[in-house]
Amino acid sequence: MQVESVTVRDGISIAVALYLPAAGGPFPALLAASPYRFDNNVLPPSSQFLWRETGPIDLYVEHGYAYVNMDVRGCGRSGGSFEFLGKNEQHDLYDVVQWIAAQAWCSGKVGGLGQSYFCMSQWFMAAHRPPALACIGAHDGLNDPYRASVYNGGIPGDFFPGYWWQQNRIINRSPANGGPPREQDVDLNLLLAAHPTYDDFWRARTAWEVLDQIDVPLYSGGVWSKHQLHTRGNIDGYRRARGPKKLRMSGAANAWAANAEFNSREFHERALLPFYDHYLKGAANGYADLPAIEYAVRGTSITRTATEWPPPGVRYQRWYLNATPSGSVTSLNDGGLAAAAGAATGSTSYAYPNPGWVNGVVGFGPAGPDPVRRVLTFTSAPLDADLEIAGPIKLELYASSTAPDTDFFVKLSDQVPQAESDRAEGRNPIAETVSRGWLRASHRALDPERSTEMEPYHTHAAPEPLVPGAVYRFDISIEPMAYRFAAGHRIRLEIVNGDSALTEMLWTHYYRPDKIGADTIYHDARNPSVLILPVT
């Protein structure tokens, strides 16, 4: 590793680590930029260190690439203060790309690489259009931090201001190679809390706003299990970018498996190396002839291909909430979910905080912590045949509250058949969370220009309090997914006004002390709350 310093347009010094092939050249270069300081690259790319998301550096060097790892400003060895995707950070990416291209060891062509924050950087890297940037391999990274994580549906999340910022400061303060500590004096918690609505602060940091300015070739790699953070970003990046592009959606089971996949040589040799070889070396390797979209179907071992997203031929199937007990689960209500509108009757109410909540909205049952026992559920009858979905998911929810505001946390789950003896003991059936959606009631206003029939886009600009007792329609986007519900399983919808560290792990939303009241979900002929699934 060789360390160089790049002076960017405002005079700040940006540090980069160079990993160069031993001989030959000049070489095409790959730029990976993050706050995680390259002094930590001596660590193994283990899922113990989720932020080790550079990919296999040695693989690319072996294949004749210069690998450039950049510490973004305010991090590692770079000067300035951390801005969390701010304009100066974006300009630095442009300046460093151009600096790389001007070096004697570089062929003049640069590509973007990396997962998560490295991917978030690439959206801006490409949107700013540095002339030397030839392509980006944007893997597993959001492009709308407000909607994707910091304020899911307008609800404050704790991942970035809490868990993520704490770990970022620790890994900057105590680098693995024994380098000098870097103390970051930004209070990200207060900075993000000062912007609870989608204002100019967020517009400047939201690559979604400028994705249509990306015209370099794009390989967008998403992960279905990262729907609490990154999934929609890779789909939107693919759909809105204007250059040659492909989309791959991984079926990795969770964040740790996704990290392991991206750090594996096999993944890069199969997926990303052919992309870079094609666009940075001009290799005629068949990459351009590959399908535009490759996506795993969760719940199976199947990988499908498509020409567009959502896949052609998707039909949108409506499942109506109702008050008919499913008899299959113990919850606050045990309501039903049916494909026939005629079953929609009555309403369902619950008061909160529920006295049985122990950790967030999780209570306890005969087998210990039980995530479903103290929430509302609407569950279908056992499916007669497999049901496969692929695309956007939406809940049209009619609801009222005794409070001037409330939150909706929605889960779509796959409920597995249960032994009668377990049901008799009051144990709840095993279920797999398929996807999630969120909305703060006061943030219900839609942007008519950006919303579509299946993908509501909320402005989050001017919250409107509820009139207590009044019934409203809430269009709630559930994160897109490809999944197969097996015959005999049940589709389950869960609704409550909070979550739990037991179920969300890294992506918890703290339960506020002022969330006290009662909400009513309506599911009658006049107010037919309905779940809409993209059936293939």
State the gist of this model:
It is built from twelve helices and 25 strands.
Descriptive overview:
With 536 residues, this protein is an alpha/beta fold. It has two domains: 2-290, 3-Layer(aba) Sandwich (Rossmann fold); 315-535, Galactose-binding domain-like (Jelly Rolls, Sandwich), CATH 2.60.120.260. It is 20% helix and 30% strand. The protein is built from twelve helices and 25 strands. The protein has helices at 57-62, 87-101, 117-127, 145-150, 159-173, 188-193, 200-205, 231-240, 255-262, 265-281, 420-424, 501-504, and strands spanning 2-7, 13-19, 27-34, 66-71, 106-115, 133-139, 151-152, 155-156, 218-223, 245-250, 293-296, 303-306, 315-322, 335-338, 347-352, 363-365, 368-370, 376-379, 387-401, 407-415, 431-440, 472-485, 490-496, 517-522, 530-535. The strands form four sheets. Strands 13, 14, 15, 18, 19, 20, 21, 22, 23, 24 and 25 form an eleven-stranded mixed β-sheet that branches. Strands 1-2-4-3-5-6-9-10-11-12 form a ten-stranded mixed β-sheet, with helices on both faces. Strands 7-8 form a two-stranded antiparallel sheet. A hairpin with a 6-residue loop joins strand 11 (293-296) and strand 12. The longest helix is centred in the middle third of the chain and has 17 residues, at 265-281. It is globular. The model has no long low-confidence stretch (mean pLDDT 97).
